[in-house]
């Protein structure tokens, strides 16, 4: 078992709970109420802010030009496609500018933000990779559940969020990140990376929990 697989196995309860979360079930079924999607996307747009910082830290701490360019390309694609998705969905859901830019943060959002900023500040490539890998791999895992569904029947704000996290480019990026994580942790003290990995998985689960239980603003 690779180190990445061992980390995932060590967090299997939280990982599986997140991948099979009722939020994901409802998203895949097209039954997710708009007020829940709205809450989730408003919080996730704040997640994206620190995620861009984390990708920037990956650019800065990667061992060489090849890896640096890989992160830089993903950063560019993220800044375009993902931001377009948010803008379109916020328009459809009638989210006002203030709530897009500076909403009240839910607790898992604050904690995830803190974890990503800490990881970026650590300037440790394995720790940066651990948090990036969880965010991308876990999202790839739940989105892959859509493969045996008729996604064409879904509203674009549901369908596009699933497809952003399950397409050939995205899947190749997750595979690459996983291999990079295995390499980087083989060459360094892996314990801080393993801890960051476990913390990130807990927060992914909490992030979905919050999306379903939080009160509508
Ligand atoms: C909370 C969360 N985790 C992971 C992703 C995918 O990077 C996302 N958009 N939001």
TrEMBL record:
GO BP term (any one): thiamine diphosphate biosynthetic process
GO cellular component: cytosol
Annotated Thiaminase-2/PQQC domain residues: 15-211
Membrane spanning residue stretches: none
Pfam families associated with the record: TENA_THI-4 (PF03070)
UniProt binding sites for substrate: 44, 82, 136
Catalytic activity entry: 4-amino-5-aminomethyl-2-methylpyrimidine + H2O = 4-amino-5-hydroxymethyl-2-methylpyrimidine + NH4(+); thiamine + H2O = 5-(2-hydroxyethyl)-4-methylthiazole + 4-amino-5-hydroxymethyl-2-methylpyrimidine + H(+)
Enzyme Commission number(s) from the entry: 3.5.99.2
GO molecular function terms noted in the UniProt entry: thiaminase activity
Active site: 204
InterPro entries hit by this protein: Haem_Oase-like_multi-hlx, TenA_E, Thiaminase-2/PQQC, Thiamine_Salvage_TenA
Catalytic class of the enzyme: hydrolase
Metabolic or biological pathway, per its Swiss-Prot or TrEMBL entry: Cofactor biosynthesis; thiamine diphosphate biosynthesis
Keywords of this entry: Hydrolase, Thiamine biosynthesis
Function: Catalyzes an amino-pyrimidine hydrolysis reaction at the C5' of the pyrimidine moiety of thiamine compounds, a reaction that is part of a thiamine salvage pathway. Thus, catalyzes the conversion of 4-amino-5-aminomethyl-2-methylpyrimidine to 4-amino-5-hydroxymethyl-2-methylpyrimidine (HMP).
Record-stated family: Belongs to the TenA family.
The protein's name in its UniProt record: Aminopyrimidine aminohydrolase
């Amino acid at each position: 078992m690779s180190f990445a697989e061992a980390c995932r196995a060590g967090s299997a309860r939280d990982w599986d709970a997140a991948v099979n979360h009722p939020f994901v079930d409802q998203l895949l079924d097209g039954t997710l109420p708009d007020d829940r999607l709205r809450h989730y996307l408003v919080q996730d747009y704040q997640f994206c802010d620190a995620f861009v910082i984390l990708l920037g830290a990956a650019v800065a701490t990667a061992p060489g030009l090849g890896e640096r360019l890989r992160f830089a390309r993903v950063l560019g694609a993220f800044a375009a496609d993902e931001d377009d998705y948010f803008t379109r969905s916020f328009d459809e859901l009638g989210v006002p500018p203030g709530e897009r830019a500076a909403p009240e943060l839910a607790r898992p959002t604050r904690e995830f933000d803190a974890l990503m900023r800490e990881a970026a500040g650590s300037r440790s490539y394995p720790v940066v990779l651990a948090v990036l890998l969880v965010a991308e791999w876990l999202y790839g895992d739940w989105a892959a559940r859509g493969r045996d569904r008729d996604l064409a029947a879904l509203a674009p704000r549901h369908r596009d969020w699933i497809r952003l996290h399950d397409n050939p480019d995205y899947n190749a990026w997750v595979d690459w990140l996983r291999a990079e994580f295995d390499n980087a942790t083989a060459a360094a003290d892996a314990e801080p990376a393993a801890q960051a990995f476990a913390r990130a998985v807990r927060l992914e689960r909490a992030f979905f929990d919050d999306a379903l239980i939080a009160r509508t603003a």
